[in-house]
Design brief:
This protein is α/β, with parallel strands linked by helices. Helix content is 19%, strand content 30%. A hairpin with a 3-residue loop joins strand 19 and strand 20. The two termini are 53 Å apart. The structure holds ligand LQZAQKY5 and molybdate ion (MOO).
């Protein structure tokens, strides 16, 4: 290994240690805004859920004793005295020897102890023929069946995903305390960059890193915005930094960190030792930097400086930025990628890997007899977004491996959830143009 390069794991540990010194913030937010954040309190239910016994079926609420022995041959006929749709909130009582029509989710009337589904009746609303005897408590969901009042339904440290959000809302929580997810600003640099949507001319490049990283951050549940440096002028860049740290908790930059004459990020942040720049033994993603900036109120804002090559930027995001953010957000999976973010796959292809550097190779995945198999997704140049978009995962080739051979198992960091696996299985859509 080239001796001046720092191993990937060592750099990641240094980034995590630096970010670990920034205190986490706890904020109380309206419940819907908790999505994607980690709970900072145990949540105790103030109510039973369901709050009262309700029906699991559309049908008729009855006293079971009134319907004993009912069958298709010997139906029991009862007068229908009321109609209870879901959403009716007044107290309804069932008199002996009567039935009340009821809908799924509606409160079971006082005095009723079973519901007969509509399919086992003649569906009439004046008097109803009941064609079967219900089991005791048939189709009645008791109060507190799901959640009991006073029960801890969610523990501090739980990630609020779609299911957890549903539970929070169902127990009537208006707001909840969460670890504030770090707000990230993505700052792209380079005089050559055009705004997304522009057609590049000679010497021009469209800013794809900004949209890519903001989208990736949002996919991972972090609020993110994009910013563009005014140019490669150092004084202007310093002013941009001063402005941006006021509105974010983490700053991520791309570009301007290698050996060029105009590498403004490295030049400006090296001053006063605000950031450390080093070569990391990985491919792509060699030039890296990290440090801390201070906001006007004394807040410390971690800054992670990624290389400008688009694939290098994405790889660096996955192996350094995402773990750091998960740590700052107290993500229960911890800073390292959760198991669901990676699979082990066996190589179908052979290729040479760079000596002494961990390679993160763009690969496609498919199911083989023994589990996941992988193939190279295309050209592996750091500028080649085509192979990145075509890939399902980054296969991690350890620094000591110089040649990947068919049959070799490799850990693969997933680039999208396999459940939605879009790259290889979807047919091309019909052409459609929009104005
Ligand atoms: N003499 C050396 N040259 C380079 C070295 C080196 O060690 N010695 N390292 C190379 C490696 S590896 C990488 S990676 C790049 C990193 O360069 P920078 O981080 O300084 O990035 P830039 O020079 O600004 O840009 C590199 C490349 O990426 C394109 N780019 C930049 N920003 C964006 C963006 N927002 N969207 C799309 N594309 C972007 C830019 O146009 C360049 O093509 O340095 C190598 N050079
Ligand atoms: O290591 Mo630089 O990140 O591609 O090509």
């Amino acid at each position: 290994m080239a001796s001046d390069l720092v191993p990937l794991e060592q750099h990641r540990a240094a980034v995590l240690a630096a970010c670990g010194q920034v205190p986490r913030r706890v904020v109380t937010v309206p419940v819907l805004e908790a999505h994607g954040a980690v709970l900072a309190e145990d949540v105790v239910s103030a109510v039973d859920v369901p709050v009262c016994a309700n029906s699991a079926m559309d049908g008729y609420a009855v006293r079971r004793a009134d319907v004993l022995g009912a069958s298709a041959e010997r139906p029991v006929v009862l007068p229908v005295t009321d109609d209870v749709p879901a959403g009716r909130t007044d107290l309804v009582t069932l008199a002996p020897g009567t039935a009340i029509r009821i809908m799924t989710g509606a409160p079971v009337p006082e005095g009723a102890d079973a519901v007969i589904p509509v399919e086992l009746t003649d569906r009439r609303t004046d008097q109803v023929r009941l064609l079967a005897e219900p089991r005791p408590a048939a189709h009645v969901r008791p109060a507190g069946d799901d959640v009991r009042r006073g029960q801890v339904v969610l523990a501090a440290g739980t990630l609020v995903d779609a299911r957890v959000l549903a539970l929070l809302v169902s127990v009537g929580r208006p707001q909840v305390a969460v670890v504030a997810p770090p707000r990230v600003t993505v700052l792209t640099t380079g005089d050559e960059l055009l705004e997304p949507g522009a057609l590049p001319g000679h010497g021009e490049v469209v800013d794809s890193n900004g949209p890519m990283l903001v989208a990736a951050l949002r996919e991972h549940g972090f609020p993110a915005v994009r910013a563009r440096a005014a140019g490669d002028d150092e004084a202007a860049f310093e002013r941009t930094l001063t402005e941006l740290v006021e509105g974010c908790d983490v700053l991520v930059t791309t570009g301007g960190v290698s050996a060029g004459a105009y590498d403004v990020v490295k030049a400006v942040l090296s001053r006063g030792g605000r950031a450390t720049f080093r070569g990391v033994a990985m491919q792509p993603g060699k030039p890296q930097g990290f440090g801390t900036l201070e906001a006007a109120d004394g807040r410390r804002v971690p800054v992670l400086t990624l290389p400008g090559n688009p694939v290098s930027a994405m790889v660096s995001y996955l192996v350094f930025v995402l773990p750091a953010l998960r740590q700052l957000a107290a993500h229960p999976a911890g800073p390292d990628a959760a198991d669901r973010d990676q699979v082990v796959a066996v190589a179908d292809d052979a290729w040479r890997a760079p000596a002494g550097r961990t390679q993160l190779a763009r690969v496609t995945l498919h199911r083989g007899d023994g589990g996941w198999r992988l193939r190279l997704a295309g050209g592996q140049g750091s500028h080649m977004l085509g192979a990145l978009a075509a890939a399902d995962a980054l296969a991690v080739v350890p620094a000591a491996v110089e040649e990947v051979r068919p049959g070799m198992p490799l850990t693969c960091l997933l680039l999208h959830p396999l459940a939605t696996h879009p790259t290889s299985s979807h047919p091309a859509p019909e052409q459609e143009s929009r104005p």
